Amino acid sequence: MNRMNLILSHIREMLMSRFAKYVIAIILAAILGAGSLMASRDGSQPHGPGYVVAADYGPPSRPAILTAQTAAGTKQIILTPGAWTIDRETTITSPLRVLPGALLTRSGGAHLIIQGPFECGLHQAFADNTPGHDWVTFGSGTAKSLHPEWWGAKADNSTDCSSAVTAWLKACISSGIEGQWSNGTYKINSQVAATMAAGESLTISGQGGNSIIDCSGVPYLIGYGQPEVYGIFITGAPSTDPNNICRLSNFRMIGGATNLGGLVGLHLKNVGQTILSGLVCTGMPMDGIRLTNIKFASVIECYCSSNYYSGLSSGGTSVKVFGGEFNMNGGGLGPAYGAAGGPGIGYGLIVNAKQVAVYGARCSGNDRYGIDFRAGSDAVIDGCYVYNSGLVGIHGANYEIAPTGAVNIKIINNTVDNCDRRGTPGIQLDSAQGIKAGVEGKGKSWTVPVNELLISGNTIKRTLDAAILVGAHKLNNGSTSVKKLIIENNQIEHTNQTDWVASRLITAGDGSVNDYINNTIIVKNQIFNGAIFVGYGDVANVSDNQITLTGAGPLYYNYAINSFAKNSILNANTIISPIYTWTVNPFLRSAGGGNYSGLSYIREMKSNIVNGTHPPGLWDWVFNRSELSFKYASVISNNVRPYLEVIFKGGTKKAVSINGRYTKIGGADNTPTIVSGLFMESLIVDNAGTTTFSGPSPYTITPFRESVIGPGPPAMTWYLNSAANGFRLETRSNAPGDNLEGEIKMQYSGTISTIKVHCPNPGVNYIH
Q1: Dist CA 510 CA 521 (whole Å)
Q2: Residue among 160, 189, 208 nearest 255 (CA)
Q3: Could you tell me if 340 and 367 are in contact, meaning their C-beta atoms sit under 8 angstroms apart?
């Protein structure tokens, strides 16, 4: 009994202790709390500490939410499953959590304002029973991000999310809170559109290629020039408020198109600032991405491929593209250039702005142009890789953009490579020009002067036609097109030696009066590596151009520098100072031609180095030969006194036979020829055609000099502008190492221009 009394005494002391009071209080509180909320739990687990369950204050309704808010204060309100009808404007300031199955349902045009922290999983929270997608407004900072699932979107590749995405975008704009796409595919079956008011912004991001917006269900009309619709269309304030900012990143849009039509994937219009990063847009019937009237746009590492018109079409004040890939765009989804309006009108990049910059973009397999830019002020195309374009690799012009001043264009450090991507025998799909930077009026009334055009440091490979084509076209008012053109340090390669397609460096006008007025053209330090240099273009009606051209062809050995002048003044009386300087390449021909009265210059020089094989269309010969031929391109008028001085140098070998011949191409060899009043003398030492030398000592021949021709009628003019007229000098030897050196001098009214020629015979096997 005493032991039992002692135990009971210890129990009484413990119960009366401070510790026991705390333990009992906690247990009682837990029991009472659990009892009061048991009916409002989601399953058997509590929702967390410090919350109020709205269902405890009545059935799902607006009054129950407001009563719960009064009771909650700063505690979180929990909405359990049910339709929580909002039938008039309602503001919720307490923290709010929406459980799966709970829907804030609009009725009668009500408006819901969320001013407290909002929490919801990736399930629907808002239902709109009456039209008006923007009925929910979030206060700034009330959520970390907004999700289209809250408005009923499902990334299940089947649910039409158009209405939900529209409501979501509007909420993102009004709140300024970032929106986030989830993993999965959202189907868009009708155009999604949202507008930013002055000062509003939009930020949307995704999970990279795992966030897919499928626009293939959006109806559109098939064909070119059809009315346009858009997968997603974002517009800004009409005045293009610079405070409107649109940031879109890391999601993918697909169109699934099989034909050209009126659907554009993503269209942004009248937005002050636009930043697109990591977007993928493919398979659209028209443009993948279009930017219209954007004040400042940056496109960063986007991928736009297999769209039927362009990967990216952009316009505005300033557009900058950094990296990214823009491939296989066009009606043929590859280089199959055709008529406008049909297959083959595809562009990788269209950049149309007052200020243009494209850095490091990759454009491959586009039907028409890889990069097409038009600038009203300045443009830079730098470090891009353009491969296998259907027509032009890089095309530039500045029509369609009203100028803000003199235009400066830089096309630098790019690679344009146009070999046949498909490899189909007998079908040539290379681009026609590597880089084409021109100026066209296109019916516009403004004058668009180009102050300086720099084309430098580019590598152009395997082009079907010109490697670099700079064409200046007459504007409506006949004003100057390009004041200063600099083409330097470019490398032109043609490694596919099976099709004998030449690469050209050429400038040309359209022959209109006032083309090329007071311009400066500098062309220097070109490298023609395996490419045939076909010419530097002739332009009719040229006035006061100062042109310099230098270059080298490392696969054609070390030719000496040659310089000659051409009369570049229509019907002028004098030849201006020498304006061409270059290193001779195997095939050197101007691209103009035609009979220009008063133009007196060398049109063509050819140098062939052959060993053991006869090039088609030339003369039979023995073993090794070095040959120089030249002809006049246009007209040799009265008082022209051309003459030729040639130095033959024997090689180091003994018993070398050298044959110097004067030949009228198309006529008999070794025959002095009189053509329409131009008198020539024999060019050779031995009319028999052969002289044998026994050592390397130089032998000088002063071959011919034209008889003096006084003033006379036009009948005295000698035309040499076809393949049937010209002259040839050649050496023939039985061993390598012999050379032909000479000077071609053109005299006109006391001014002498000279071409110095070194034509080696290295004894290697090369066929032109």
Answers
A1: 17
A2: 189
A3: no
Provide the pLDDT for residue 562: 25
* DSSP letters for 431-451: -SEEEEE-B--TT--S---EE
- Give yes or no for a contact between 362 and 322, defined as CB atoms under 8 angstroms apart: no
Give the rounded distance of the alpha carbon of 87 from its chain centre: 54
Most distant CA pair in the chain: distance in Å?
Answer: 158
Half-sphere exposure of 280 (CA within 13 A, CB side): 13
* Those residues with Cβ within 8 angstroms of residue 225's Cβ, 6 or more apart along the chain or in another chain: 341
Residues 6+ apart with CB under 8 A from 679: 706, 707, 709
Interior CA angle at 735 toward 729 and 738, to 5°?
A: 40
Helix (H, G, I), strand (E, B) or coil at 173: helix
Cβ atoms 277, 236 nearer than 8 A: no
Residue 503, H or E segment: none
C-alpha to C-alpha distance for 496 and 753, rounded to whole angstroms: 37
SS3 content of the chain, % helix, strand, coil (to 5): 10, 40, 45
Residue 178: name the closest of 110, 129, 251 by CA.
251
**Residue 202, CA distances (Å) to 152, 198, 229, 234 in order:** 20, 12, 21, 9
Q: Is the backbone of residue 80 left (phi > 0), alpha (psi -120 to 50) or beta?
A: beta
Q: Which tokens go with 698? A: 């130089």
- pTM of this prediction? 0.67
The pLDDT of residue 60: 95
Chain centroid, CA 739 distance in Å: 46
Where does 196-244 show beta strands of DSSP type E?
A: 201-205, 211-214, 229-235
The one-character DSSP state at 33 is H
In whole angstroms, give the CA distance from residue 431 to residue 416: 9
Kind plus residue range of the DSSP H or E element containing 63:
helix 62-72
Whether 525 and 488 have beta carbons less than 8 Å apart is answered as: yes
The span from the CA of 360 to the CA of 341, in Å, is 30
Can you tell me the distance from the alpha carbon of 26 to that of 23, in angstroms, rounded to the nearest whole number? 5
Nearest to 302 by CA among 313, 315, 294: 313
Return the pLDDT at 289. Answer: 98
The whole-number mean pLDDT for each consecutive block of 10 residues of the chain, a chain of 768 residues, reads: 52 48 38 37 52 94 95 93 95 97 93 97 91 85 97 97 96 96 98 93 96 97 89 85 89 92 95 96 96 94 95 92 94 51 70 90 89 81 89 71 68 79 27 47 46 82 68 41 69 50 43 40 55 40 35 29 25 24 25 26 33 31 33 34 34 28 33 28 28 32 29 26 34 39 40 43 29
Residues 6+ apart with CB under 8 A from 743: 644, 645, 646, 754, 755, 756, 757
Side-chain half-sphere exposure of 566, counting CA atoms within 13 A: 29
* DSSP 8-state symbol, 720: -
Nearest to 375 by CA among 433, 431, 426, 314: 314
